[in-house]
Amino acid sequence: MSSPTAVLVGVVLIQVGMSCLLVYNITENLKPCTALALLIPSTVVVVHTPIVFLCISIVGIYVVVILRIVRQHSTMHIAGRGTAGSVAAMKRRTRTLGIIIVLSLVGNMPRSLLSFFSLCVGPTTSVLKAFTFCNYLLVLNPLLDPLTYVFCIKEFRDRLKLFFAKHQNSVQPVAAVSACVRP
C-alpha cells in the first residue's frame, strides 16, 4: 500500500476520476464545486467514497505510527537508554500526530458523510446549507497544518516565548513610570 508504485497508481486513478467528473460537470452545465453539483450520486461515488477510504487509511497509518513511537520508547526505556527528555519528546510527537489526525477528520469526514446522507434524503435546503458549512471545514486542515508543524520546532516556540515575554515586561503601570521620573 505504501510502495512507490501503489502511491503512483492511486494518484493516477484519483486524477483520472476527478478529470472524468470535471468533464461530466461541464457537459451537464453544472458549476463544479457547488453544493448541488457535489451531491450528485456519481460525484458521491467518484469523490466522496475515496475520501472516506483515505481518511480511514490515514487514521490507521497514524495509529500505527503512534504505536511504533510508544513501542520504541518502551524498548529504549527497558534498555536503559530512555531519559526524561525522551519521554517528553514522545509525548510531543504523540500530541502532534493526534492534532493532525483530528484536523484531518474534522476537515474531511463531515462533508463525505453528509454526501452519503444526501443520497438517502435528497439534496434538501438544509442539506445544501450543511454542505456549504462542510466546505468551509474542508479549508480548516490546510489552513492549520502549517501552524501545527511550525509549533513543533523548538526554536520557533522559544523565540515566540521570548517575543511575548519581552513585550509583556515592557509594559509598566503609569504610577511606576511617574515614580521613576520624580526627583
Report the major sheet: none
How far is the N terminus from the C terminus?
77 Å
- Structural category is mainly alpha
Which quaternary structure do these chains form?
A: single chain
Fold and architecture overview:
The chain is mainly alpha-helical and 183 residues long. Helix content is 85%, strand content 0%. The protein has seven helices and no strands. It has helices at residues 4-27, 35-38, 41-79, 84-121, 125-150, 154-170, 174-181. α1 packs antiparallel against α3. The termini are far apart. This is TAAR.
Describe how the helices and strands are arranged.
Elements: H1 4-27, H2 35-38, H3 41-79, H4 84-121, H5 125-150, H6 154-170, H7 174-181
Brief summary:
By secondary structure, the protein is mainly alpha-helical. Helices cover 85% and strands 0% of the residues.
List keywords for this structure.
0% strand; 183 residues; membrane; disordered C terminus; elongated; mainly alpha; TAAR; single chain; cell membrane; 7 helices; transmembrane
